[in-house]
Amino acid sequence: MSDERQRGGHVTAAHPHDAQIRALYASFLDGWNRRSGAAVAAGFADDGDIIGFDGTHHRGRLSIAADLRAVFGSHQTPAYVAVVRSVRPVAEGVAVLIGNAGMIPAGGNDLDPDLHTVHTLVAVDEGRGRWRISLFQATPAAWHGHEHLREELTDELRGLLAPR
């Protein structure tokens, strides 16, 4: 398997609702970075799931909002910086977004490469083009044996942080 493929960089045809699904992910990241459980949960389906970087599993939009409100209230959570690698259809009304993200520890101004993650977002169309997150999972991006990928991602994400 090529390095690019392992990092999720494979090329697929654009999803017909690509912009809406990317916006759903951007809204999730924005809610997280604002430390708002309600804003994070707003994009989820009623029965949506989130599996965090540490394996914690939150079930249902209302529980996600309450659980994350508690997390944000008791922890200085890092902020995400992310890039979308692909958005692809998997079935009618179902799409998968793969992204790579880095995190900036609270009070910091640079990424911590040990916190790099692969984000998997499964989106479902609840009707009339209303896309919601069914599953969001953050997987640590250690890339054992391919550490150069972590360095490349760090450089890429730092480029997104650079003043324009």
Tell me the series of helices and strands, N- to C-terminal: HHHEEHEEEEH
What's the number of extended β-strand segments?
6
Helix content: 25-40%
What is the alpha-carbon Rg in Å? 16 Å
| Distance between the ends | 35 Å
Helix segment tally: 5
**Major β-sheet annotation:** 6 strands, mixed
**Strand order, sheet with most strands:** 2-1-6-5-4-3
Shape: globular
Q: Which regions have little confidence, pLDDT < 50, spanning 5+ residues?
A: 1-10
- Give the overall pLDDT as a whole number: 90
Label the structural class.
Answer: alpha+beta
Strand content: 25-35%
Characterization of the model:
The protein is of the alpha+beta class. It has 5 helices and 6 strands; from the N terminus they run αααββαββββα. A 6-stranded mixed beta sheet has the order 2-1-6-5-4-3, with helices on both faces. β1 and β2 form a beta hairpin. The radius of gyration is 16 Å and the shape is globular.
